[in-house]
Hints:
It is a single chain. The protein has helices at residues 15-34, 65-80, 131-144, 214-224, 243-255, and strands at 41-52, 98-109, 115-121, 149-154, 172-177, 186-190, 199-200, 211-212. By secondary structure, it is α+β, with helices and mostly antiparallel strands. The chain has one domain. It has a six-stranded mixed sheet, with helices on both faces. Strand 3, helix 3 and strand 4 form a beta-alpha-beta unit. The chain is globular and about 85 Å long.
Amino acid sequence: xxxxxxxxxxxxxxxxxxxxxxxxxxxxxxxxxxxxxxxxxxxxxxxxxxxxxxxxxxxxxxxxxxxxxxxxxxxxxxxxxxxxxxxxxxxxxxxxxxxxxxxxxxxxxxxxxxxxxxxxxxxxxxxxxxxxxxxxxxxxxxxxxxxxxxxxxxxxxxxxxxxxxxxxxxxxxxxxxxxxxxxxxxxxxxxxxxxxxxxxxxxxxxxxxxxxxxxxxxxxxxxxxxxxxxxxxxxxxxxxxxxxxxxxxxxxxxxxxxxx
Length: 260
């Protein structure tokens, strides 16, 4: 079954689904590009790893020495206060460090191993304050300071968009930063009502560039992942749509027979 939306399906942004969607989409993009690249290039699936706390910013580490030093004093006070009931422990939850792995793509030149183009599909942690965003911004800045092209795909309405100067708000964005044109870059900004635009993936100068039909790739991901069985279209998407888009989506889903 095809996705009922003409462009990005907002129901796929649900945190319970996005990790799987992201993994499938990364592989699908790699496969699609490999079918259209000459043997001068190969597409590698890479990953970066970082540690994130439960709130994306707090990590469990060595106890504060000053706190440890105060414990005997607290015991002495409780011993002298004989009329006070003894303090009983309560169960608490510690913010444990979580290992996070994020996959991205690199188009490499086979002869030299040089990374010609980096392709990123943003995750929620990249758009929230914390180590996830910091790790991605470090990588982004390294690429922008190099001779590697950057393709940055943002299919998430939630969170804080990555820095781009002088842009209007939009639901989704695709950024194409060619190394020889920086600081200028191409930006495709589109709404939930619009099809995902097709775009050329930059390569070395003079080489024929493949056109990525991300809309078609995402439709294949939706079909192969059988997301029509995982999504409850009778409920609003998460994050919610604007009031106007909610009315539009309701009509679309009713027309598709997914709502009564």
